[in-house]
Amino acid sequence: MVDIRQSEDRIIQQIEEAAVKIHKAREETESVIFGQQRVIEQSLITLLSGGHALLIGVPGLAKTSLVETLGAVLGLDAKRIQFTPDLMPSDIVGSEVLEESETGARSFRFIPGPVFTQLLMADEVNRASPKTQSALLQAMQEHHVTVAGESHELPSPFHVLATQNPLEQEGTYPLPEAQLDRFLLEINVDYPDEAAERQMLLATTGAERRKPSRVITPDELMTTQRLVREMPVGEKVVDAILRVVRAARPGTPDALPRINDLVVWGPGPRATQAMMLTIRARALLDGRLSPSIDDVAELAGPVLRHRMALSFSARAEDVSIDDVIGDLTELLN
């Protein structure tokens, strides 16, 4: 009994200490990226959960600056890849080159690609061919790449923040469902409000621009990621996760009646896992010791949005995926 109490006290102390540092990291990021508090929050939730995120937004909304700032604040080595139709898998993962030594002996040497980093920005990821996308998928899924039969481990931590333009579809390749499912969250990046854009305008067009400072280290980030998995979750919150996700699966006994008409395919078990991790991370980000049902409602959209497909009749009726998710979150009231 004493050991259990000591373990609980240890976790509480670690959560409180981690929450202070993460709050500082959030403030430091918001001092550089204006008017995107929700996007910053969900990006940090993704990293605290140890996952990857897909950022959806038109050009010019500071998605690239966000990744660079997060890399600086969290002390992560960050790189960027601009995805294009002619991008090859070797341009991402690396390749082997034939070298000749002074004695004339020849051997192959592996040259790592830009995926060998801790925070990778995959810019306009849907512009690359399916073959190149599959190379990124392996890296995201397995945290290693295979070149010429040899496996090469990626650095730890390893996170991908990919971007996608929701408007321009010419010359793009839709991401396969398997790859979409690998993204922990889909984050919508909207226009800033007038006050935030005014602040941005004044801060970014002067003689000097503020540079973010490092708040935590990669080792501290990985320690916090392990702590997130130790956070307790109440039985009612677990029930809420299962209720929302299972109700989104058409053709199943738990599906909402309306879902069968509006949704072609729904979220799999990875959605419940993503929800469990992200609600814990959100609680930690807010300095709370455990998540609530409100966290489930708040993160239902980012978790489920890319794990569901609307039917033809839904699109004909001008029903959006967010409308469907709104119906699902009504189950929590």
Automatic annotation (TrEMBL):
The keyword ATP-binding applies. Keywords: ATP-binding, Nucleotide-binding. One of its GO terms (molecular function) is ATP binding. InterPro entries: AAA+_ATPase, ATPase_AAA-3, CbbQ/NirQ/NorQ/GpvN, ChlI/MoxR_AAA_lid, P-loop_NTPase. It comes from the Bacteria. SMART domains: AAA. Residues 49-193 form the AAA+ ATPase domain. PANTHER family: MAGNESIUM-CHELATASE SUBUNIT CHLD (PTHR42759:SF1), MOXR FAMILY PROTEIN (PTHR42759). Belongs to the MoxR family. This is MoxR-like ATPase.
